[in-house]
Design goal:
- The protein is α/β, with parallel strands linked by helices.
- It has one domain: Metallo-beta-lactamase, Chain A.
- It is built from 9 helices and 16 strands.
- The strands form 2 sheets. It has a 9-stranded mixed beta sheet with strand order 6-5-4-3-2-1-14-15-16, covered by helices on one side. The chain has a 7-stranded mixed beta sheet with strand order 8-7-9-10-11-12-13, with helices on one face.
- The structure holds zinc ion.
- Zinc ion binds at residues 37-38, 99, 101-102, 223, 250.
Length: 352
């Protein structure tokens, strides 16, 4: 049996079909495995690149120094993600704070790929400089930073990216004081003082950013812990609900405060933990009880978490022998999907 459409009906059907070669613009985020450091590559709908942190230097072992970029571990992983995204340069690099698991990879990355603008909170306090690897990595970073444009944004400032809205919410231990649009309600989970940060000098100075694409919102605060992280959530919620929250400080114990999750109300929590770094058991205890949280994605299985780890299909690397990323692709209507680079499987999250 054959169907024949009247011409008017056929042209209506053709009008509904997407034009060939035209694809909807998306906002992509690669959570790159740098073994418990941070490196997160954001690609705007206009194909601008916004990299947040660069992982470690050299072989990635604590204390390792920048060397031959072709032998680098983390800078090469960043380049692999950039190539996957069709990116040939880093338009904006945000260094959340000056610890070697965040700024260590920059020397090698700058030799593999042009970096056009550096964004950070400026200086490293004297107390933090007492740690030799931290001081060395910061000085190496400064030598690179002076060769390009440098932006030192304050809380409330917007970054000059096109197609997305990137607003700085914390920097150098200060935070926004007025709630972002859609936030500002009292947080009933704030019945305690700010948790003590594991490292009191530089982590609480992390630069944090909320990136919005249409109805989709992403929060990345680096290793922000202590009073400034608490101030974003308590006593008033200054951030409002986000779709994806990169759990602060790699999911360390000082980022486990349920009050922060009550404020940010993430659909998805992503942890850039290593096998033995971040991913504290107490954080898992919180994550297993966050109302409205649909999934937790881990860059690594956490040894400390034992049977509290989330299911393997949400974990990109089960041990230290692989370096798979987690990729999130967001649409302007707020829907998104997430790829486990290890399994090749996507999971869809419909618009709310
Ligand atoms: Zn860190």
């Amino acid at each position: 049996m054959r169907f024949r459409f009247p011409p008017a009906c056929l042209s209506a059907l053709l009008a509904l079909a997407p034009a060939q070669g035209v694809t909807a613009k998306t906002f992509d985020i690669y959570f790159i495995d740098v073994e418990g450091g941070q490196s997160t590559l954001l690609v705007t709908p206009e194909q601008q690149s916004f990299l947040i942190d660069t992982g470690w230097a050299g072989s990635g072992m604590p204390g390792s120094k920048p060397g031959d970029p072709s032998q680098s571990r983390d800078a090469k992983r960043i380049v692999a993600a950039a190539h996957d995204a069709g990116i040939k340069q880093i338009d904006y690099l945000l260094i959340t704070h000056f610890h070697p698991d965040h700024d260590g990879g920059v020397v090698e990355l700058a030799q593999l790929m042009p970096i056009r603008h550096f964004i950070d909170h400026g200086t490293l306090p004297a107390e933090a400089q007492r740690d030799a690897p931290t001081k060395d990595a910061f000085e190496s970073y400064l030598a690179i930073r002076t060769k390009a444009q440098h932006i030192e944004p304050k809380p409330g400032d917007r970054l000059p990216l096109r197609g997305i809205d990137a607003i700085i919410v914390t920097s150098a231990a200060s935070t926004i004081t007025q709630p972002l649009a859609g936030a500002g309600e009292a947080n009933v989970a704030c019945d305690h003082p700010a948790p003590t940060p594991g490292e009191p000098f530089e982590n609480p100075r992390s630069t944090g950013v909320v990136v919005t694409f249409g109805k989709f919102r992403f929060l990345d605060v680096g290793d922000l812990t202590g009073q400034p992280l608490f101030d974003l959530a308590c006593p008033k919620n200054l951030i409002g609900p986000v779709d994806a929250y990169l759990v602060a400080h790699h999911g360390g114990a000082d980022a486990s405060d349920p009050a922060t999750f009550a404020a940010f109300k993430p659909r998805l929590a992503i942890m850039n933990n290593g096998l033995k770094k971040g991913g504290a058991q107490v954080t898992y205890e919180t994550l297993h009880h966050v109302p409205g949280l649909e999934d937790v994605w881990q860059l690594h299985r956490s040894e400390a978490a034992g049977d509290q780890n989330f299911p393997a299909e949400r974990i990109a690397n089960l041990d230290e022998s692989t370096a798979h990323w987690i990729k999130l692709t967001a649409n302007a209507d707020g829907s998104f999907r997430v790829l486990n680079g290890r399994t090749g499987e996507w999971k869809n999250y419909p618009a709310r």
